[in-house]
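W.,

You were right to be curious about this one. When I first looked at the sequence I had no strong expectations either way, so I just let the prediction run and decided to look at it fresh. Below is the sequence, 107 residues in total, followed by the output.
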Amino acid sequence: MDLVAEFYTAVGVDLVQEQHGAGPVHFSFKGDMCVEIYPPRVPSDAAFVLRIDVADVDAVVANLKSKFHYEGLMVSEPESLKTGKKSIVRDPDGRVVELFQSFKPYP
């Protein structure tokens, strides 16, 4: 879980470690919404796509590549779309994460 926390911190997400009662220790990131990352029980638990809006996809991808060296990190290199730019990566547990940079000004 520490490696997963390091990954999301490198993307720019502020994490808080939590535990609810006797449940597993996990991390959550909060802002306008709350997303909690639990350790996967089985590999199929990692089969969802999480989109994280970032100010600069190229910079975030370069940061991830400099810090993480595991097979499957990069699913797709940054590519331009009509509405912005995106790249798809996998976190250390195999979760698919879409990094998205809107062509609209970043808040």
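Here's what jumped out at me. The two ends are 30 Å apart (CA to CA). And, maybe more interesting for your project: The mean pLDDT is 84.

Coffee later to discuss?

I.
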